[in-house]
Structures are given as structure tokens and as C-alpha cells.
Amino acid sequence: MIQITMPLNFLGTVYREIRQALIDMGDMFDLLGQPAEVQDTPGSTDLNVTGGHVALRDVAFGYDPARPILRGINLDVAPGQTVAIVGSSGSGKSTIGRLLFRFYDVNDGALLIDGQDVRDVTQASLHAQIGVVPQDTVLFNDTVHYNIAYGRPDATEDDIIAAAKAAKIHDFIVGLPDGYQTTVGERGLKLSGGEKQRVGIARTLLKNPPILLLDEATSALDTETEMEIQAELKAMGEGRTVITIAHRLSTIADADQIVVLEQGVIVEEGKHDDLLAAAGRYAHLWNRQSEDEPA
Ligand code: ATP
């Protein structure tokens, strides 16, 4: 990117616009993790979500096939349930999310949504059914209205306001100089981490997907904001299938199922209390984090 952008610097405003567009595109890929590398399979049909059951069957994957990242992953997320994936940094948590979105194809095994292999459905229909709330919501250099409506371009003004209210960001927006027409993002008003997260939540609420992929915020939010955002994410998860990639264990203690990943393998799974009682890997992570982050 530096090599591309440096020569553009002295070519004036037009090129600065282009450069910003390139950066925005880069951000958009960041938003979803990675650029899409796979194409629709010829003859693929639209994904038909009936309940939102997500299943990984013996999944193996490596970005470089010579270096496996995930091995023998079996996971079942029943419709409407919340599964939290935990594990140390680099264990492959976010990679599972990227496979669900089919940014990459598995090397072995399969990933199914309501029994349909993600390789057999159109990517547009797959992406329409999965809402992603990433670690750091990327805002486009555009109005707040646009940034929320991005979740569903045909949304009405009333829909957008309702989503903003549910994400508890409406009052903040109406206090901005131009309300919903205020430009935000790199070249506009800079929003705080918590405000950006709320715009992201409003965007996802508007999209109303049956499946949610939450990549929990690692960016520093103050404790109160973080608790509020967690409550809003939790409310959003009601009635949806949720896969949470968790970095802090305190936020996922009430998940229906917790999966502990180590070096690309599931080493433990169960509910919080059972895993603590088992005094294994999860209990170790929990105790270590409790020491790091005293309540
Ligand atoms: P963290 O908690 O730090 O976010 P994670 O458990 O989500 O980590 P992943 O992002 O899934 O980990 O990464 C798993 C492994 O895959 C890491 O070793 C990482 O370096 C590698 N990896 C991630 N993305 C790529 C990529 N695009 N190309 C090659 N290797 C990658």
C-alpha cells in the first residue's frame, strides 16, 4: 500500500481522493477480516436459512496448506444458541469466523448452515445472513445515516432511527451538528470506540441477520461503556445463532457452549461452570485472567 500511495501524494486532490478510497477499501476488508479469495461455485444457489444451525464437520484449514491452522474441528451451534470460542492468541479463533464467511475454503471437512455446505451457496446470500460485529467497527467517510444504512441499503429513515435507538446511539446522533447527516470517519467527525461500536450494532440490527459473528472488542473501552456494549450485543443475540470470538472470558460466562481452542484443535468444550469444575485449560485461562483483571 505504501508503494502505491507514496507517488500519488504529490498528484493533487484527485489522487488524495483515490488514495482515501483505497484505504477505505482496505478498511472494509479489515472489517470482514480478509479479502474474499474464493468465487461462487458454478450452479450455486441462495442459502436458505430455516433455523440458523451452524455446523463444522472435521474442518482442517491452513492459509498455507503446509502450515495447518485448524485441525479436526467439529462444532455444532443449534439455532438461537450462543457459542463462545476462546483460546490464546493465534489459536485460530478468528480463522473459524473467516471460514464461516467463506473468505477461504476449508482444506478438509465441511462447514454447513442449516445443512447447506457454504461452498454450494452464493456468497451474496451467505453474507446477507451473517451479521458481523468486528473488533473495531470501520466507519465509511460518509454520513452517520449512510454508515447505519449500509447494513440494508433500502432501509427507511424510520428503520434507521429505530436501529439507532436500539443501539442506544440515537440521542448522541441527534446532538451532532447535522444530526444523521453529519459526516463521520477519517475525514469527518471522529467517533469514540464505544460510539463506533454502537454504529456497528445499529448497522447489524438493521440488517437483521439470523446468524451473528461477534469478534469481541479488544480495543480499550472504559469499563462502563464496555458493559453497556456487552448488554447491547447480548440483546441483539436474542433469538439468533451467535458465535462469539472472545478475548475476555468474563463476557462469555453465560454462553450456551464454550469451546477452547489451542493451536487449532478443540481441547475442551462445555458450559462455564462445568469447565471451571474440570480444572483444565479453561479454568487455567479463567484464573489467569481473574488475576490480571481484578473485578
Ligand atoms: P487473536 O486472539 O490474537 O486474535 P486468533 O486465535 O483469532 O488470535 P487467528 O487470527 O485465527 O488467531 O490466527 C491463527 C493463525 O493463523 C496465526 O498463527 C496467524 O498468524 C495465522 N494467520 C492469520 N491470518 C493469516 C493470513 N491471512 N495468512 C497467513 N496466516 C494467517
TrEMBL record:
Where is the protein situated, by its record's location annotation?
Cell membrane
Q: What are its GO cellular component terms? A: plasma membrane
User: What residue ranges are annotated as transmembrane?
Assistant: 1-15
Q: A GO molecular-function term, please?
A: ABC-type transporter activity
Tagged with keyword Transmembrane? yes
Source taxon at top rank: Bacteria
Key word Magnesium present in the record?
no
Q: Report the main location listed first in the record.
A: membrane
- Domain ABC transporter residue range list: 54-288
A GO BP entry: intracellular iron ion homeostasis
Key words, A-Z: ATP-binding, Membrane, Nucleotide-binding, Transmembrane, Transmembrane helix, Transport
Would you tell me the protein name for this molecule?
ABC transporter ATP-binding protein/permease
Q: Which organism is it from?
A: Yoonia rhodophyticola
Its taxonomic path starts at:
Bacteria, Pseudomonadati, Pseudomonadota, Alphaproteobacteria, Rhodobacterales
